[in-house]
Amino acid sequence: MKVGRVFWAVGIRLFRSIFLFFLLIFTIFFCLLGTEQGFRLVLGGVDRLAGSTFSVRQSTGSLLIGCQLYDVQVHINEFAAITLDRFRFRWAPEDLIQRKLHIQELFGQGLRVELVAKTPTRDGEQDRKITLPEFNFPIAVVLDELRIEDGHILPSLSGSPFLIHEALFRASAQNNQVTVQQLKLDSQDYDIDLQGEIQFIGAWPLELHGSWGIADPGVNDLLGMAHAHGTMEKLAVALSLTAPASVKLEGELTDILNDLKWQATAATEHFHLHDIKVDVPVDGTLRIIEASGTTGSYRGILAADIHYAGYPPIQAKAKVRAEDYFGLVVDYFSISHNEARLTTKGDMQWKGGFSWQAELEGEAFDP
What we know:
Structural class: mainly beta
Helix content: 10-25%
Number of helices: 2
Order of helices and strands: HHEEEEEEEEEEEEEEEEEEEE
Strand content: over 45%
Largest sheet: 20 strands, mixed
Oligomer: single chain
Number of strands: 20
């Protein structure tokens, strides 16, 4: 009996010691992450350890109840320098009990990203081929809102910054699938609003659909719809322009991440040139019979039925190609009406100033 009492007393004391130890750990953890003073202490330590890689000027709140950071700076070597005037984070830690990471808000204001120029590869060195990883989320993830306001992305080389008025992302993820409730971008020149799904298996099957717009590029604002489905190796794309004219385009993208190639066809409904701010009494239709290319070259065959007020309708057809985006070769451009035909070919260059040359040939042509 005495031996049993001794073991019982030792067991009670051991249990109390373990309990007090974990209570102390929990108290320290709560003080560091659950209080504003503790959170500042943690951020100060991270700031000192990270050096110039990461810094925060001021913070409020805590990691458990939500926090705000001010003047955040992140430097990623050989990639980018990122600054953020204000960052806000809110989540629901109690949902972790249900094996769900529930992020209620990620908000950033005054984003500035300066991209770093990539170091040229040595002779004979090739960029490594990108292989898509497979990924499975260990717990469910819910992101109620990721929002960026007033963003600037500066290219590594000379060029105009990409200005973001607002970017919005809402999504959820479970197992290997991400469901995008909304991906919205409102920039100075473009805007998109997409929904869809993507799976992180194989070649990443995906489907996206939504609307897009381009601020007046000189032909009125362009508004349309988009739908894409397939994988990152082979993606079918359908675009439609709804204003200022009606255009439908269907195409396909292959090997998107490593060696992008594309092909497409398109056709317009009947439209007038004054719809695109061209004050000429011409109307008709336009077709892209076939077109294909890469990120640096393209070729295509186009056809059109054109009617100029007071004159009989004519048909036009052209075949063009380009090995870069600084010029264009016109293999042929023909205009015909009944038996009459006017054909030209030549090339145009606009690097270092606009220049062109052409040959003209007529057949059964009566001016």
